[in-house]
UniProtKB/TrEMBL annotation:
Native species: Cypionkella aquatica
Lineage: Bacteria, Pseudomonadati, Pseudomonadota, Alphaproteobacteria, Rhodobacterales
GO CC term (a single one): cytosol
Record keywords: RNA-binding, Transcription, Transcription antitermination, Transcription regulation
Family (UniProt): Belongs to the NusB family.
Entry-linked Pfam families: NusB
Record-level Gene Ontology MF annotations: RNA binding
Residue ranges annotated for the NusB/RsmB/TIM44 domain, each copy included: 12-146
UniProt name for this protein: Transcription antitermination protein NusB
Purpose of the protein: Involved in transcription antitermination. Required for transcription of ribosomal RNA (rRNA) genes. Binds specifically to the boxA antiterminator sequence of the ribosomal RNA (rrn) operons.
Length: 155
């Protein structure tokens, strides 16, 4: 297998970050325990002959840490992007984890908003290949990005 490039490694890190945030919420494990598990047992691991993607560890850590440290702010931003009758606690837990990861990038990292949106829409498609979730994710992330980095969206 050829060594993945930096873009592929960041894409894998985003997917792992969403999985890690979901697992933290579902299991109640600490961020340190989840980070250790993913970095030790997921990045580049081989399961039943299938090789897991190599991820950008620094990007993974940054997304997860920012999502945890700024979760209240990110959740409030997500709530503002959602219809009033659908607060974030009623959203599918995988999509909630995705919004938190994307929100971390949109608010705390230098990734261009359009890159973050495209990357996390791709993550949504990986989890929900046949559903309408990717369009929903795109709409919510677009709203969040415009709030977080309005300068990236000239009128």
């Amino acid at each position: 297998m050829t060594k993945p490039d930096k873009k592929q490694m960041k894409s894998a890190a985003r997917l792992y970050a969403v999985q890690a945030l979901f697992q933290m919420e579902a299991s109640g494990q600490t961020v340190e325990a989840i980070r250790r598990e993913f970095e030790t047992h997921r990045f580049g691991a081989v399961y039943d002959g299938d090789e897991m993607a190599e991820g950008d560890v620094d990007h993974f850590r940054a997304v997860v840490d920012h999502a945890v440290n700024f979760q209240a702010m990110i959740d409030q931003m997500t709530d503002r992007a959602l219809v009033a009758k659908w607060p974030i606690d009623r959203i599918d837990p995988v999509i909630r984890a995705l919004f938190r990861a994307a929100g971390a990038e949109l608010t705390q990292m230098v990734t261009p908003p359009k890159v973050s949106i495209n990357e996390y829409v791709d993550v949504a498609k990986a989890f929900f290949p046949e559903g309408k979730e990717s369009k929903f994710v795109n709409a919510v992330l677009d709203h969040m990005a415009r709030e977080a980095k309005p300068e990236a969206f000239p009128a």
